[in-house]
Amino acid sequence: MTARIGVVTFPGTLDDRDTQRAVRVAGAEAVPLWHRDKDLKQVDAVVLPGGFSYGDYLRAGAISRFSPVMEPVIEQAKAGMPVLGICNGFQVLTESHLLPGAMLRNNHLHFICRDQKLRVENADTSWTTDYETGQEISVPLKNIDGRYVADERVLDMLEAEGRVAFRYLDGNPNGSLRDIAGITNEAGNVVGLMPHPEHAVEPLVGTGRTDGLGFFTSILKKLVNA
After folding, report:
1. Is the CB of residue 6 less than 8 Å from the CB of residue 84?
2. Which residues does UniProt mark as catalytic (predicted)?
3. What are the extents of the domains in the chain?
4. Which residues are part of the catalytic machinery?
5. CATH 3.40.50.300 applies to domain 4-225
């Protein structure tokens, strides 16, 4: 029996199908979850994919945070269930206070879409064990509200505790403080990042590389070996 990984769809989600495919490419079972679901269907992990949930009204992720599905997601994440938030999913995680900080409009005020080089800063989370600390990868990036911000106390805490999971290389695309592209919670089961690893799991599409596949093989190995 393989791991069951839930992929949540909110109104306005764009990348749920791509994420489901990435889960299947890694060898796990993708379980669709609707935003009104109050039952997580016995999944072993959850991915909150990218898009513009609820049209990004109020703030990106601010309304999705109150969707019925988020109640069990928050509860289970606090109990240790692995959760990955990609782009809009990262925004939902900060709005849910599962991860600290906030996401603001890019400092140049434009939507950006490009392949983005990242450095893996923490290879010990539930979603990054198939990488090595210091490894450089390239995955697509596409956002307009991708600027990660937090006060100096929180930034210093993230650095000191090794909770910066990914950092931008070769230019900061959105003005994120300290070049932060992704972070993790203290337990390492919740990870959020702005770039899109689900678009880099097959050589035929995306970057033409499979640098993003490690997110999904990492969690599969963790769940199967648990």
Report:
1. no
2. 87 (nucleophile), 196, 198
3. 4-225
4. 87, 196, 198
5. no
